[in-house]
Each structure stands twice: as structure tokens, then as C-alpha cells.
Amino acid sequence: MASKAEPITPPEESPWTIDELIRKRATEDPTLPLVSYPAKDVEYVHYNARQLDVFAYRAAKHYVSRIPQRTSSAEKPEVIALLGVSNLQYFITALALSKLGMTVLFLSTRLSDAAYVNLFDLTGCTTLLVDPATSSSARSRFSSYEGLRIHDILDSKQFLWSIEDGLVDTRMDQHLDAHIENLHISWIIHSSGSTGLPKPIYQTHAAALRNYTHNFGLKGFITLPLFHAHGLSSVFRSITSKKQIFIYPAHLPLTGPNLMKTLLTYDFEIFYGVPYALKLLSETEAGLRVLSRLKLVMFGGSSCPDELGDKLVRNGVMLVSHYGTTETGQLMTSFRPEGDLDWNFLRVHKSLKPFVKFEERGPNVFELVVLDGWPSKVMSNRPDGAYATKDLFAKHPEKEDCYKWTGRLDDTLVLLNGEKVIPIPIEHTVRQNECVAEVVVFGAGKPQTGMLIVPAIDKPSPEILEMVMPSVEAANSLVPAYFRVAQEMIRILPFGTEYPRTDKSTVIRAAFYSHFRKEIEDIYEDALTQSAGGGKDMSHSELESFLGTTIRDVMKLEDTVDLSTTTDFFSLGMDSLQALRAHSAIIKSFNTNGHKVGQNVVFEHPNLTDLTSFLKSVASGDELEVKNPEVVMAELLQKYSTFTPHAPGSALAAPSTLVTGATGSLGAHAVSQLVRNSAVAKVYCLVRAKSSASAQARVVASLVQRRLYDTLSPEERAKIIALPSQLDLPTLGLEPADLEILRSSVTTILHLAWAVNFNWDVQSFEPHIAGVHNLINLSLSSTRPSPPTFHFGSSVSAVVATPEVAKEAHSASFSYAQNMGYARSKLVAEHLCAVAAKTTNVTAHVHRIGQIIGDTQHGIWNPTEAIPLMLQAATTIGALPALDEQPAWLPVDVVAGTILDLALDFPEHEARDAVYHVVNPKTFHWTNDLIPMLRDAGLEFETVDRREWVRRLRQSTLSPEQNPPVKLVEFWEGKYGSEQPRGKLVFETERACEGSETLRRAGVLDQGMVRAMLEYWLGGPWKTEEARKDEVLILAGPANQSYRDALRVGGEQEDVRVRLIMLEAGPEELVRRVDSRLGHYMKSCMVKSQVDAKEDLTAGDWDCIPFGAQRTTEETTTSFGELVRELEKP
Predict the structure, then answer these.
(1) Domain 654-849: what homologous superfamily?
(2) Burial class (CB in 10 A: 0-12, 13-18, 19+), 287
(3) pLDDT, tens digit, for every residue of 1005-1055?
(4) Which of 60, 109, 533, 1051 makes the best surface tag, with the fewest CB within 10 Å?
């Protein structure tokens, strides 16, 4: 909530508005240099107060023709957003808009489109001014946002010319009441968005001007962008104190040499920068000397590592820490008397002291709370008007009112790469080990997680670690790869170690991190820091060989695994932890000549060729150009756009269908529907597996999981042939004989397999793009008269950034894909289909698929997806959000049916490069339709406002095991923690509906579907671990219904869930086997009675798994073992 708005009456002669401040300086000190900005490179031009005022006036005259000026102070100021780099035009534009009485919304250049749109919605922004260099892109990105006018930020030529002698009346607000304007919003800054979508922070003229009076009155140099609160306020503090400030040029990269050139050329008293700039300067003696000559060196934007700060202070630098928030303005600094070395302890000034309190959160851990009444506070989050910052501090052991920032109140750990992890699940698992008294996972701001263990027994650390590792490995299996803890990142603390905890013996996390800070830093130092002189010089070939060995070691690859120089590491299964281990090995072993190798180096260069070239360039001091994702997409398209023409053959084998992705939900439903089609002789499933038995078992297990396998007849099941494959190989990894069978019999190819990983860049999906190329070439190599039709299962994310309505046509631009490698790779594959259709006679159709939900029969929907997790909150916190959304969901079996309609029976006149949107044209309303259906299905919960729902979810005391929805609380906080988000892009479906009766008949979500999904979730996935029954697999022969029921009853009595694997073989084979059993009591004449007693499976027998035992004993045993292994997987 906003603070109580009361006018801050300025002293006499003090300005009421930002514009009045500038005009006042221009009148009183017209020739005083205030702001300096380079005309080129670092050759600065100095602009005095009068110039700034006149430039702003000229700019305002330019903008007023496009942005109507207010007629009175009774009108609310229009919100005008600024999106661009921090150059002179940007700054003058902000002054001009202020002169016109507008509110300026400063936007970071690094936000997502969703974040921008959210800020537009929250602030009521109607006009966006953008840097001309990005104007075209901005117009495309925001074209679908209704009511937003977009104009270019004016060029400097439109205001930057000489000023004639004589007074110029630059005032444009004569018709406005200064006393009222004082309380209007001058600037809107936004939060970083580190825990969700950025939130706007409103600052009145009164609050801003009061904030700017807190300054050191020194001539300064700033490297911070003006759209950051600290950057903007630093500039205006200088203007307020009549001191000149130099702004680092936006067109130059932030490097040590560029900084040094400016610092050596001009005479400064204070430097404002981020810790990264200080690190660059601290790396040379010259940089340390120039910093030591300044009166003050201030940093902001992030915390400064103790090692860096101590080094600067030891070398005579007067380093001052600054602390403030966008919501409160500047609060504290570490400004101190000469000789005081406590640079990282902030001082509570006497003027601030009445307005803050430090609330204890643990032993020497305090949260800062800013009380109502502090002049520059513009936000509150407590009923009494106070603002709780969630920032934690430690008191100085001796000095009064001195505090050191130690971290955030939130338990969530945000790793260096931005991944968010909740430590509770992994800690809970390890804590169960009898050797462990307490365990704490750490890793905030670091490249990987680590673990400190307080032992419960008094034994040597190596012995304890050995006993604990099985629990760590078990815990690692429960969490994503980027969160797993490596053995070298674990430390065993001494037996009996005291640690911060509550009276309930619960560890106090923030206090724990603070108490064991040195131990934690030592772990990272050991794991990631290159030892002095440890790196070796290597030739290009030596480095490539070393990297190949390193990648094999960290990934534990078998010698048989092909790791070529162009193999993508992630196609072999590399995870985040392995990538970081590879980075660690690189910096310890390879001499980079002092140049930094980023933590993400393996992610950004995921094959031996690229990684070797990059590291060699780093060592030589050169920089490789980072390619734009759209350029990479174009290169991938070019690389795979050559296809072998089809040579018509005469093969007329019974038509069959080839399917990829059969181990997934959509693929499984497609297979089950295909085998029921009498026109389809065989369904070949290409599966990543080591053997045919393993491939077949994976497909069967997938069908079993979806309760589909038991519904198929023996004849239908016999149509399914799974083949082990590797799609990125030209031969698809198939045996020559299998390849020839496919070329002669396949008439339709459904490509539904794709990796779902939102962290990969588009280049890491190259094996999947190659797979599309290879499958199309398979079609073109057909020995039939015409090539099989090819159907690619794409995603609506491939075109989600399309302006206005997404048409059923190929995308006009690579920029229309969602900003992630997954979506971009899908769009590249779409373009491949278009190229193939235009350059050959193959039919290559694209099926863009929207939100898939559970099937219409059983409602089976993966419980770990976002929507099922949200609905689960009804059972964990007893509440669901009231959303104003209209979803367009399609059941998975309907999606499969739609694709098969379009693939098997499309019109003859249909274009060979057709695109379909497999999206439900019928929508429903979340609150008006879904919420009542959930209640009617028996779910009991309260409906609350979306922000209240997020608050309850975050404040839940249940663990993630008990309350799985909490795992996505950050995602929902970003989506629903503020004003209502805008509607989604509209997808045309006319072509798909015309070609698919299934889609035309698809209904909107109904009560039966909701009930089926709830029954599935409540029957197993939503149960706690303790409530879930153990499962027993029973191998059985032909059986009747009463026999099956008796086994189930027995399972219930033993409190276990029974699943029956029903062996099947023909009567003749059974007779042969009985006759071959020498001395056995059973005779062949008894077989008939056994077979006659068998009763077919019914709809309720989904827990029965038919298993063909017609093959040899060895083949049957092998296949059975593979199937059991697949069924045992979670």
C-alpha cells in the first residue's frame, strides 16, 4: 500500500517539482556545469544548467505535439514509459516529460515482454518512448497491446544546438498548481523482479526532491543506468548539490581500460558504480591507485564481496557502502571517519533512527523495518504504514548503530544462473540419516548448491561422509539436476557444533548462513578457484583433447558413447551440476592468462569445437562475437535445408504408420488410436533405447501408465513394433533391415518426440532439429510410389510472440517464437517442414499444439504440471484463486484424435506445407465454470483473491512434500501477485476444424472431465508418501474375472496395490509347452479347460497388463525383465 500522502513543505526558495529544480539551477547558476556526457568514446561534453533546461524545453515542444499536455492539476498525469539506453537523449527526454507535467516510468532494458506488459497494466501507461535503434522490434513486440502509443525517443539533433544570448522562458506549467503537483507522481521505478514480475514503485515530486537533499556534495562519475533507482537518484543528488556528474557512455562496454581512460582524464571526487566495475579496476595497480585518490567510492545495485572490499580498503580506497530500496529511498551508508576500516557496516544516521527498527529474526540477525513518516518512503506493506524490507542485518560487535547486510529473509535460494531452489526437500531426506543431527543447504548467489552437516555421532569426517552419501544421493534423485549437491560441496562440521536454532530446535537459516559464512566460502574457494600457477598452456588440439576427457569424466560416459567435436553435451544428458563441474575443471587446469571464464561457459558453448575456440580466444584476450538467437536459428535452418529428392518406387506393402514420442502421453494416445484403425497394418515406434526389448517395454509401460494397453485386443497390441533408434543420425540409428521395412511400408510419419527443457538455448536442440531433417529424408527415401506424409507436432509457443492473431500459416519471423530455446527450436523445425514441402514432393504438415489436459476417459494428467499443482492447493491450503481467465484446454486423447484426422485423411486440395492449430476453439471461465465443477465433484475449498491465494501458499508451514504447490509459488507470485494480466494471443483454428471432425466435436470442459481428473489425482498422485500403498506385481496366467478380483481383495487385506501381469499365448503354443514338460502332472488335454475359463479384460481391469509369451523362453524372459524395470520407475 502507498504511504499516507502529505505535502512536504519545502523551505523557502526550494522547488516544488523536478522541472522547477532544473529551472532554478538555470536561473541562479546558468553557466554551472552539471551533467557531462561523451559526444564520442570518452571525450566528454559538459552541459551547464541553462543548456539542460533549454534542451528539455526544446524536447518538450517536440513531444507535446504527440503527447497532449494536461490542462489543470485536477487531471491525473499521464504515465509515459521510457525504454532505451542511458544516453543524453534519454536524460533530456525525462526532463522534458517532467516539464510537461507527465509521470515517467523508467523501464529496464532487460525485462521480458510479460514484465513490460505487466508494468503497463499496473501503471496505466498509455505511451511508450523507445530508443530508435530498437523501435521496430518494440512496435512488433507490443503491437497486440491495445491502447499503447509508441514513439521514438527524439534524436539529439532535435534539441542539441547553440543557445543564443538572452533569457528564454522555458516554463510550461503556468496553468498547473505547484502545491498539487508536489504530490503527483514524478517517477515510477520498478523492482528487480527477482521473485516474480517487477512491481512499480511510485515516487512523488515531494519524496524525490527530499531524497535528493541527502548527498555528499562531490563531483562524481557514475556507471549505473538511469532506469535504476540508485543511478537516477545519484544524478539528481548531484544537480541538487550543484555538483557536476559524468555519466558513463551507454554505447561503450564496461571494461577496465574504458573506466581508466575517464578516471585519468578528468578530476573526480566520488565514483558511483556496481561492484563489477570496482572489480575491474581492482585488477591492476593503476586502477587501485586512481580509486585511492578519490574522496569517496560508492557502490550499489548489489552487495560487494568482502574480499574485494577489503582489498580496496587495504589499498587506501575510501569505499562506502550504500543501502536503500526503491520503496524507501536511500537509508544508510558506511561513510565513516578516516582510519575506520569497517566499510561494510552501514551507519544509522540520527535523522533516520526515529524511523527505523531492527526486528530480531535470530541470534544477531535482524530485519530492517522502515516506519511510516520517513519522507522518501513511497510504499508500505504493513497495516501501520511501515515497510518491512526482508533485508537481514548483523550488529557490529562493538559500535552502536552499525549494521552489516547479511542476506534476505526469504528461504528460497536463487543460484547464480537465476534458478530458484527450495532447500527443504533435500534437507529433510538427508536429516533422516541417523548420523545427521542437522543439515543446511546453501548456494544463494553461487553457481551450485552445497551442504553443511552437523553430525550426530563422534567419528572422523570421512567416515561420516561415507555413511551419509547414500542419503544425499537419494535426496538428489528427488530434485532437479541444477539443485543436486555434489560430494565435493559437502562439509562435515565438528561433532557438538553449536548453530543458530529456535527453542524448538529448528535451524534459523539466515543466522546459520551468517555464522558459518567462512566455512561456506572456503567450500567454494576449494571447488571453483584456480590455484596459483596451476593452469597449463595448451595448444588448440591439446585443449580439445583435455576438454573431451573432462566432459567424459564429469558425465561418466562409457567409452562406447560417441563424443565428436560437434556433439552437443546436453544431447548426451549433461545437467547443470555437470556443466559446473566441467567449468571447475577448466579453470583449474587451463591457463587463461588471468582472463575470466564465466560460470555458464559450458551452457553457452555446448560442444568441443565451440568450447575450445572460445577458451583459446579468452586466453589470447580476444572476444568471440555472441550470436543473436535468430541468427543461430537461421544457420540451423540453412544447415538442414537440403533434402534428397524422392525417387518413386513400386513397393506396395500394407500401409503402416511411424510414430516418435510414444513414451509420452500424447504419443501413447496416438499409438492406441492408430492400432484400432483397420487401415493401419503396423505402428512402428522409434524409441531411444539400447535394445528392441527395452524399446518395446518402454512403449508398453507408457500405454499401461495411461490405462490404454489393457483396452487393446491381442491383434491390436501385435501391431505395435518398437525399434531402438537415435533420430539425430542419418540412419536414425536403425538396423539396415528395419530401415528397408520402413521405407517400403510406412505411409504416414507422426513426429511427436521433443525434449522439454526450458533452460537450453536453441543450439542445444540441434539433435532434435537434425531428427526432423532425417525423418523427412526417410520419407523421401521411400520405395513406395509417393513419399509418406510427414506431420510435425509443434507448439503454440513457437509463435506466441506473433502480433495480434496467430494464423494457421508459417511464421513470418523468427522473432515470433517465445524467448526460449525450446520454442525457437520448434519454429526452426516448422521452417524445415516448409522448405521440404516447397523443394520436394513431400507433404510436411505442422500441428501447433496448445494446452493438453487429462484424457476424457480416466482424466490422467501429470500431477507435476502447473495447473494440476494449482488445483492441488485446494487440498493442501484449502483455497483456490478466483481468476478472470478463459482457458482453451484440450484432452490428450482429443489432441491425438485431431492430429490423426489431419494426418490420415486430409483433403486432397490441402497444401503440402499446411499448418494447423490444435487448440480448442471453445473456452470456459475459470471462476464461473471450473470452480463450481470442482465443488460439485466433492472438492472442498475457499475461493479467494489471487493475491491472497499466493500469500496463503507462501505462508503455509507445510513442507513441499506435504504441499507440492509451494514449489511454484515464485511463478504464481509473478503471475498473480499484482494486477490482472492481459489476455493471451488468439489462435485461428478454422483450417484444423475443417479437417478434423474430432476437433469440431470437441466440447468444452465439463463436469465429467473434472470428476475424472480429480478421481485420478486423489486416488494416488495427491496422496502423501505415507498414504500411498506399496505396489505388488503378480505374474499370472489366463484367468477369469473372479480370480482377478480375489487377488485384488488379497492385496487390500495386506494394504498393498496389486497389478497383474497376464501371460498370454495361443492354445497351440500352450499345448506344445505342456507336452514338453517331462514328468509334469499337467497334461495337454487340460489346456483347453484353462483357455475356456479365461475371461477377457473389461473396462475395470486397467490394473491388468497383458504380456505376450508366445516367443522363445529367452526372448520372453528378456522382454519381461525390461517391462518390470520400466513399471518400477516412478
Answers:
(1) NAD(P)-binding Rossmann-like Domain (3.40.50.720)
(2) buried
(3) 999 999 999 998 988 788 765 445 566 777 666 566 776 777 777 777 776
(4) 533
